[in-house]
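Let's inspect a concrete specimen:
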Amino acid sequence: MPFIAQISDLHVGSLNFQENLLDKAIDEINSVDPDVTIVTGDITENGYYLEYERVVPFLDRIKSPILVVPGNHDARHVGDECFEDLIKNRYGTLEDKKHGLKVIGLDSSEPDLDYGRIGRSQQSWMENELRIADEENLYKIIALHHHIIPVPKTGRERNVLSDAGDILQSLMKGKADLVLSGHKHMPHVWMMEDTTFITAGTVSSLRLRGKALSSYNTIDIEDEFIEIILNRADGTRKCLAKYENTCLGD
């Protein structure tokens, strides 16, 4: 059954970026050998080309198949063009037919703005990819940077998707199984109908709230259950959610 790693908000180039934390997380992820690693945005701090050049060797060290989507920081200073040059597609899919899995990556960034937007064209594309995945009986994962549902303990809500309502409706109709995001640096899990929304913390930045630590998520999808684990920088682990798997094998 599929085993997934999610890292987010690297912020390479920031004064708060900690290279040792990213090194440690990548080594740990490689040691557990996930079937896919999903990076949900803000891989750079300012979207500068030099920051992208610095982050690429880190991403190249990840041994599993990888899907990366941009965040709001990555779209600063013409960073969207740098992303396409060095990381490639700003949205797209990653399929693992062996494990019955399809990851649909979205670009929620807007150039030089902190809030996010998917837009009608990309929304229509996502709906079609969800439909195809459903017809092929694949487990459907959506990956984007901006959260769709507000995250607790993150203060006043300012940076959710501007078209969150429309996207949420499409996700419900398309029967998405998991929705992975980052942005707020605060791990959390929401469950709505048959869809689970997972927000990741920052894997390598010290821009943290309260006593939170840098972290990343792993998601273990078994026949009987799905378990979401928070992996902290101090080596401790916490179960964010564990629930019955009613999706695979239908």
The longest strand covers residues 225-232. Residues 120-135 form the longest helix (16 residues). Residues 3-244 form a domain with the Purple Acid Phosphatase; chain A, domain 2 fold (CATH 3.60.21.10).
